[in-house]
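Section 5.1 Outputs to date
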Amino acid sequence: MLVNIQSQTRYARSIFIISLSCNQWNSSSLSLRSLISSNSGTDDDVETVFRIVSSSTSTKNLTQSLKSSGVFLSNDLIDRVLKRVRFSHSNPLQALEFFNYTAQRRGFYHTSSSLDTMLYILGRNRKFHQIWEVLNDVKMKDRSLITPRTVQVVLARIAKVCSVSQTVESFLKFKRLILQFDTDCYNGLLRTICQEKSMTDARNVYHNLKRKFRPNLQTFNILLSGWKSSEEAEGFFNEMKDIGVAPDLVSYNCLLDVYCKNREIEKAYNLFDKMREEGICPDVISYTSIIGGLGLVGQPDKARDILKEMKEYGCYPDVAAYNAAIRNFCIAKRLGDAYNLMDEMVAKGFNPNSTTYNLFLRCFYWSNDLGSSWSLYRRMMETGCLPNTQSCMFLIKLCNRQEKVDMALLLWNDMVEKGFGSYILVSDVLFDLLCDMGMLVDAEKCFLQMVEKGHKPSNVSFKRIKVLMELANKHDSLQYLSEKMRVFGPLMRVSERWENGPDKLC
């Protein structure tokens, strides 16, 4: 009896010790995961790791370089490195090696943001087989990382090169991957079809799957926002009410936008009245649609008056509303009134954004007015409004058209220094200009600046510079540039992407 009691006591003590050890391990594991998630790296750390990933030649080389760097690979740092890879169009398979290496560490879990960025990179490069491999691996480790946003990221890349039926088939694969395969995922599919295919396709997919997924308010708002035909938009607007889904402000704004873009201003005003009758107050987006619609029917002055009238209803214009009114005057070629409205906007405390300036730059581009474009560009820089890609393209194309190399190089140097615009799109035009003018030294310098920033020059630009270097017998420089290009992976002919046909990519 005594032996039996002692045996039970030892057993109870061992259970207690094992339980305590497990709790300590779980606590330390959670602490480690929290530490890895919260610890962020510096910009220098991000640059260091990005360089290692871009220049690695093998998994072993990548692993050794990352270990010897001494950089702590936190979730934040990994996320920022992957975003650098995305925007620099670097080698997707090197990024995948980095993603997989970090995922194998004990106690480490990627974030949903890092996963989505990695999948975007693979999808953009048509690495669909690798996408499904990554998703299966993530499912085994932490299924909660796969979200409705993940579904939409993957489907958006697939829909660009595959048919609607293949996109839907890919969507149905997520049923075994995601925790909740529900209406949110369904809405992601519909948003993708609306953006990448046609609204007719979106309507067909909606009707084919609506019995499997219960459509909600967001479902109809996605569909309403895509229609260009007021008749089709009205049909869905009525259907949502028929099945008991009450329209909200977003629903009304979508229908209002369709009316205004179709120049049906009378219907738009009637809908305004109906909104107020149902207790839904029009917001600044509602008024912005009306302003845009009035411009399309040739009434820019009446649209400007809306900016004042809306205040009577407790709604105040924002930058987008002013931009809509400025656009109307630009369309009417009344740039003086457009400039006055921009000055009024500044006086009321609103800072013009790149969209505001692009309205003017577009006018100057079509009138071949580089002088006015450049003055506006300098104003942007002085006021701290960095140009976007569209702004840069207007400017660089004008420089190319008028063979203004000095201005083109000033724009490029500002881009490199301040980090705005698309290096890839702008560099194509810049390299054309420099090569046409025989300025090979400047072309080489800009090429290297771009590579140092981690952005891959297009194959077309590289081949153009290569031809000129061969003619100039600059073989050492050509070899150096070729080595720099190898960092981004082997040069691929356009035909190689499609050698099996787009249908086999999914």
